[in-house]
Prior knowledge:
The protein has 16 helices and twelve strands. It has helices spanning 23-33, 36-43, 50-61, 105-116, 130-137, 151-163, 182-187, 194-206, 209-217, 228-231, 237-247, 254-264, 276-284, 306-317, 332-340, 350-382, and strands at residues 7-9, 17-19, 79-81, 84-86, 90-92, 121-122, 142-145, 168-172, 268-273, 289-292, 322-325, 345-348. The longest helix has 33 residues, at 350-382.
Amino acid sequence: MPNGGGTLSGIEGETHDMKAASILDYRELARRKLPPFLYEYIDGGSYAEVTLRRNVDDLADVQLRQRVMCDVSGIDLTTTLFGAEQRLPIALGPVGLSGMYARRGEVQAARAANAAGIPFTLSTVGVCPLAEVAAATGTPFWFQLYVVKDRNFVRHMIAEAKAAGCTVMLLTVDLPVPGSRYRDVHSGLSGASGFAGSIRRGLQAALHPRWAWDVGLMGKPHTLGNVAPMLAGDTGLEDFLAWMGGNFDQTVTWESLTWLRSEWGGPIVVKGILDPADARLAVEHGADGIVVSNHGGRQLDGVPSTAQALPAIAEAVGDKLSVLVDGGVRSGLDVVRMLALGAKGVLLGRAWAYALAANGQAGVSHAIQLIEAEMRVALALTGVTNIKDIDHNILVRDRKFG
Ligand SMILES: Cc1cc2nc3c(=O)[nH]c(=O)nc-3n(C[C@H](O)[C@H](O)[C@H](O)COP(=O)(O)O)c2cc1C
């Protein structure tokens, strides 16, 4: 397909195909391609999804100042995160189960990130294990760690991440217990146990033959590669989800960060900060960075959006560590808004997962291109030529975002 874009085949009865022009188009393409139990898993949030909606709506509410008659013929989007220069101030954030959205999905997404000159983050609960992604890409990537109860296994994963050449570790701390996601129950991903669940998901797969061929048949093994050694014998999707609920370590504290730092040795970024007090503790405990995140509205419903939480957190820590952010980012404009609110870098979550589901590596590459193009326009029309100069001065001041 030219330019790697996905196509939106017309609604029933129409014959034309439409090229994806935005991340929201990729969302629709993903909805059509995936069995509902997977689409709803990506798209959904916890409980009433108030925070999920807030993430998107609050970003859309951030108003930019249009400035004119500046020479904007040369736009520089390059930045440096954790000692490495990258072409754009974005990274693909950790998205679990990505190998269920497209065949060996983590490898495809990592290749797209490499080609774009930005980092890819492999989740602890990715389908492809660390060694597979490393062998397939040959380029350093980031690793996201969930601390499980068995500390020896945590040590083992850290050793694997080092062996794979990972450069940065994201420690996700906002999931000591899983928030309830109603859509997963309704779709048959969770709640329908054993045989009944398998039948429901099997029927959905049968109605989505492109996915059934690409992933269901050709994308095996469907294991969570990094944690598969712990699961010995249990291979069904529902076994993994149950395992996650039962094995994440709820005793993790800031002292655990000290332990992890000594085991890992490289930069550690604490993901899941939403309060300035926790951001200050991250500084005190030597974190190299934080991700201001509410897990994409998938954990504690009712907490503020990340766009709302970010300015106070950025102000609290200053330049003592690198402030990254995610949540609700669906365009290059949203990336620029987050930078203006105080972030140094922005993680994409659903944005790349939708594109991966729709059209694999080519879809993710195209999604990154779309975001880059939108960023260039946003800079040009706010009168800024270097991404490092983006700050609150490009925003129309309003009370909501300080
Ligand atoms: C389907 C899905 C799976 C996710 N899996 C993980 C994960 O394994 N580890 C993690 O730290 N965050 C995970 N997240 C959260 C993302 O890293 C990120 O915080 C969130 O998606 C940002 O919100 P956005 O998708 O609205 O941009 C996941 C998010 C989604 C949508």
